[in-house]
Design a protein that fits this description.
The protein is α/β, with parallel strands linked by helices. It has eleven helices and ten strands. The structure holds acetoacetyl-coenzyme A. Could possibly oxidize fatty acids using specific components.
Length: 256
């Protein structure tokens, strides 16, 4: 598929998707979401890919849903089309996905980053849910995921005032896993993704599923789920390979 609003690259076992609507600071319109979803489908189906990176430009990861496209939407249209539901494709990706965020990650841009498994932030990153200034509220998970990341007080303040959070605050608050100098962001994300892509493919996917389960269930059920999945790993050749490699003092070679 030829894409117009994203750039797609493969680096060894890592798939890189770059949001690319520079004239609109990567504002998220129908086309960019359709293309993003198609690229995710392709990387999911590609057995050579073990980890995916989603990034934007130096100036913007994404400045939110496309306000110019959205401004004349009506209630029946948004309801009947289930507007935003298709964005959730990203959160259903089974392979690990890293968000590499530089510049603005606002509204739907912040929400898209939070659908990824973790966020690496450039020191230029700015996160915010400014929808309230447009007379609406976050509609792609902002009130839910931001609250789980940073707690009620900070999420409430950000959603009610629309103020932005810089990278240092985002790291302190637990929104991002690490802050990286902007010039090194994509290279560092590629290194981290390559480490993940070299692990056992099923184990990385099951680990992702298990961490995500902690957001969906009680501690008792989550621990039970984790233990059952852990047990199932002893059926994998990669478990034998990983533990033999440790005992034999060599690097494991996981086959997936
Ligand atoms: N939608 C459509 N176009 C956008 C956009 C958006 N979300 N964000 C920026 N643009 C466009 C601007 O209109 C401008 O286009 P023109 O040159 O044609 O006028 C271009 O991108 C550059 O933007 P600015 O001139 O505004 O750049 P700036 O550096 O002065 O400001 C900014 C940057 C602070 C990010 C500012 O653009 C801004 O506030 N953008 C909107 C952020 C926002 O409100 N996001 C939430 C959207 S609603 C949403 O996401 C709902 C949801 O939960 C799913």
């Amino acid at each position: 598929m030829a894409y117009e609003t994203i750039l797609v690259e493969t680096h060894g076992k890592v798939g890189l998707i770059r949001l690319n609507r520079p004239q609109a600071l990567n504002a998220l319109n129908r086309q960019i979401i359709t293309e993003l979803n198609a690229a995710l489908d392709a990387f999911e189906a590609d057995t050579g890919i073990g980890c995916i990176i989603l990034t934007g430009s130096e100036k913007a990861f994404a400045a939110g849903a496309d306000i110019k496209e959205m401004q004349d939407f009506t209630y029946p249209q948004t309801y009947l089309d289930d507007f935003i539901a298709s964005w959730e494709r990203l959160s259903r990706t089974r392979k690990p996905v890293i968000a590499a965020v530089a510049g603005f990650a606002l509204g739907g841009g912040c929400e898209l980053a939070m659908m990824c498994d973790f966020i690496l932030a450039a020191d230029t990153a700015k996160f915010g849910q400014p929808e309230i200034k447009l007379g609406v509220m976050p509609g792609a998970g902002g009130t839910q995921r931001l609250t789980r990341f940073v707690g009620k007080s900070k999420a409430m303040e950000m959603c009610l005032t629309g103020r932005f959070m810089d990278a240092a605050e985002a790291e302190r608050a637990g929104l991002v896993s690490r802050v990286i100098p902007a010039a090194d962001l994509v290279d560092e994300a590629l290194k981290v993704a390559a480490v993940i892509a070299d692990m056992s493919r099923p184990v990385a996917m099951m680990t992702k599923e298990s961490v995500n389960r902690s957001y969906e269930t009680t501690l008792t059920e989550g621990i039970r789920f984790e233990r059952r999945v852990f047990h199932s790993m002893f059926a994998l050749a990669d478990q034998k390979e990983g533990m033999s490699a440790f005992v034999e003092k060599r690097k494991p070679n996981f086959g997936g």
